[in-house]
Structure prediction request, 130 residues.
Amino acid sequence: MKESCLCGSKQPYLNCCSIYHTKSELPSTAEQLMRSRYTAYALKLVDYLVETTHPDKLKSSYRRKLVATINDIQWTKLEIVKTSAGGMNDKAGKVKFEASYVEQGEEGVLEEHSRFRKIADRWYYYDGKG
Prediction:
């Protein structure tokens, strides 16, 4: 896929989120994980979304719910509004974002303040609030 990555980085997908989706590399910041998770939602990569959810927040029904609903929404644009911590040397970070989508022909925007935590040098999505 030579097109620009869906995460909005303006980089080719193969040089951007693909390296995380294929496990060639791990995201080194909370923002990189946020972008790669957004792209995973857009590409319907359920396994990646499950693998990058913090173990404390991973409910047994999560995969089933993702599979049941992932085709309901078409993600169209990601904008990172603000980041707080979440760097290479941090243990936690926050990313505020706006994600545009289309659901049943209606356009919408999801606004979320996401929290991320690192375990053994690996970032995980912890939770988010609208």
About this structure: The radius of gyration is 14 Å. The longest strand covers residues 106-119. The mean pLDDT is 96. Residues 30-43 form the longest helix (14 residues).
